[in-house]
Amino acid sequence: MRITLIMIAVAVFGAVHELSDRSSTSTAPASARPGFALQGRPIETPATEVCLGDVAPDVSYQGVDARWRRLHELVAESPVLLVFGANDAALRSIEREREALMDLGILPVAVVGSRLGVTRALAARLELRYTVLADPQGVIAAQFNAVDPASDRAIPTWFVLDPKRRVRGLGRTGLPQHGYQELAASALGLPSKSATVPTAK
Question: 5 FRET partner, CA 20 to 30 A, in 21, 94, 182, 186?
Fold first, then answer.
């Protein structure tokens, strides 16, 4: 009788232990697992460090029409200045340089850590006329290693991508107050609009 009770106790303990193991693995956040998808979002590949000369990850993003697209569609026509972690002042600064960037054929794109509706409202409030992408879960920022692990927020970072998604320039030490056009032009080997043209003698 005593042996039977011990065996029952062991069986119950084992069942409880197995259930707790299952619940701990199933409740892990989706973003902690490689190859994850959130809210119908296409599956992303695990993040790797993005360095100068690398091909940038073909991340998915939600357009203003709420349809999911890939980064290669955004950069297909022109190089892109991709900015993470911009505050209102930085977003306005990019807007002031938008025309100069577009004149060089460079598309400015900012990624902000808010839902689509909030992102639309932000762009309207600041009167931004360039592409602003919503990244509420920080998935895009994580793919570019632009997330601070301590705060889980996007680090102010910029990238210049050519139409083949190759990283031609990047900065991980913050966003400048101005000079985005010069940064992007230099990274792509283009003459800057502000560069002086020598006069003929």
Answer: 21
* Contact of 90 with 63, CB cutoff 8 Å: no
Are 45 and 130 part of one and the same domain? yes
| Distance in angstroms (rounded) separating the CA atoms of residues 37 and 30 | 7
Tell me whether residue 198 is in a domain: no
Position of tokens 């993003």?
A: 61
Summarised one tens digit per residue, pLDDT across range 17-67 is 443 444 443 333 334 334 444 455 555 555 568 999 999 999 999 887 778
* β pairing state of 60-62 and 68-70: antiparallel
Backbone torsions φ then ψ of 178, nearest 5 degrees:
-160, 175
Based on the structure, what is the number of domains in the chain? 2
Domain match, 160 and 78 both: yes
> Considering the domain boundaries, does residue 179 fall inside one?
yes
Domain range enclosing 92? 34-188
- Amino acid identity of 197? V
Could you tell me where the DSSP H helices lie in 135-179?
139-143
* pLDDT tens digits for range 94-137: 999 999 999 999 999 999 999 999 999 999 999 999 999 999 99
Q: Look at residues 97, 111, 95, 90 and name the one whose alpha carbon lies nearest to residue 177.
A: 90
Token representation of residue 106? 């460079």
